Fold this sequence. Notes:
Elements: E1 8-13, H1 20-29, E2 33-37, H2 43-60, E3 65-69, E4 84-87, E5 92-96, E6 106-108, H3 112-117, E7 123-126, E8 131-139, E9 142-149, E10 151-154, E11 159-160, H4 173-185, E12 189-192, H5 198-208, E13 213-218, H6 221-225, H7 227-233, E14 236-240, H8 241-247, H9 253-266, E15 271-274, H10 289-300, E16 305-308, H11 310-313, H12 318-334, H13 336-344, H14 353-367, E17 370-376, H15 381-388, E18 395-399, H16 402-407, E19 414-418, H17 425-438, E20 447-453, E21 462-469, H18 472-478
Parallel strand pairs: 1-2, 1-16, 2-3, 3-12, 5-6, 12-13, 13-14, 14-15, 15-16, 17-18, 17-20, 18-19
Antiparallel strand pairs: 4-10, 5-9, 7-8, 7-11, 8-9, 20-21
Helix pairs in contact: 1-2, 1-12, 2-4, 5-7, 10-12
Amino acid sequence: MRRMRNVKIVATLGPASSDYHTIRRLFEAGADVFRLNMSHGSHDDIRARHAIIRRIEDETDRPIGILADLQGPKLRVGTFARGSEDLAEGAAFRLDLSEAPGNAARVQLPHPEIFAALEPGASLLVNDGKIRLRVETCGKDFADCTVTVGGAISNRKGVNVPDVVLPVAALSQKDKADLEFVCALGVDWLALSFVQRPEDVVEARALANGRAAILAKIEKPAAVKAYDAILAVSDGIMVARGDLGVELPVQAVPPIQKRLVRGARAAAKPVIVATQMLESMIESPVPTRAEVSDVATAIYEGADAVMLSAESAAGSYPVEAVTTMDNVAISVERDPTYRDVIEASRRVVRRSVADGIVAAAREIAEAADIKAICCFSQSGTTISLVARERPRVPIIGLTPLVRTARRLCLTWGAHCTITEEQERFKGAVISAVRAARDYGFATEKDQIVVTAGVPFNVPGTTNILRVAPCDERLIHRADPE
């Protein structure tokens, strides 16, 4: 099951992909991580899909990552007496706390925290930005607005408030219950929605208590502004372009995507580019050329992973969507221009011994005829540092911890395998050689680079590098002890 690419593929599971046969085909087509969307499906549904993934993992003897995506608070208008109304551009429209059914002049907005944060001139976006309101006057229980973009408004449509940081926690009561459920179940990553400030991530991390890594979804202007601080307390990032494109001008999203990807790469933290990547494949077996170009752009930028949402969860062609993404990734990474772009965007980071070791591993591997860089790691940090270098040769991650291997399924280029704990470096080298040969990365005539930390089995001690032959007899001759 060796992948012939470095970028990873995240596939969302849903009604179209909830049975063993389909999930197995998605994995075989190229899915490295499966996303469980907590906005849809019961806990029983989530538990069943989780069990299928772990069964496939056992059958294929390859770690598979599972990402649980928390819903986040949902801000919605109330209901209308007639079900819907048409709002004309320039008309006055009021939002308030009254539970009375709405009409063409007003509707309930049952979120006092929004009114507390609003100021005159602020924008309110309804139904994914299809309707736009400008606040003229406001108080603790109302906002009188002017319709700047009109259209049909109906029951319980979502509301976005792009101009202010809302005093709303990223974790609702539902999210907290879902978080506890999926952490007890054994997911590897938690995607946190509605992030506005680093404190939102810190709260989720405290609740997870080490049971899952925290991935912050950047989907609000406030999160873009506070990105460096959010990145510092997160384990990974998702560029959630759907909501970003609602709350920001659409032309602002591509440069923001590039900045977010580069920042996460420099921090050696995995970054996913998500939303509408192959949207037309919900109904078509073939994507548009623009969609293929969009996926390719994310890969050229050096994203760790690209993600399918409704394409694999609810579409008519989930396996074809994964196959298409896999084929695009392989084609892009074989393009000589890809290496030029990746290496031109590499940042030099030299703060520790580990930084120096992984940089040296990449330089040696690219200067000599080295077939792979093999890293022993407890926490996965060294493997992530090697991935930050975006080397030209494969990365083999060896760890005794299955949860580390599963989390690294989201990391660029990391092919992870479970190995027994090692006490001596010689044993580690032999294990690395066997892994490189067993998975087809090298033959007995080749060489690999091996990195590890001494003393063994202590996180954060990477301090040794060796170029090793893939013939075990040569290892014993060179190191008889």
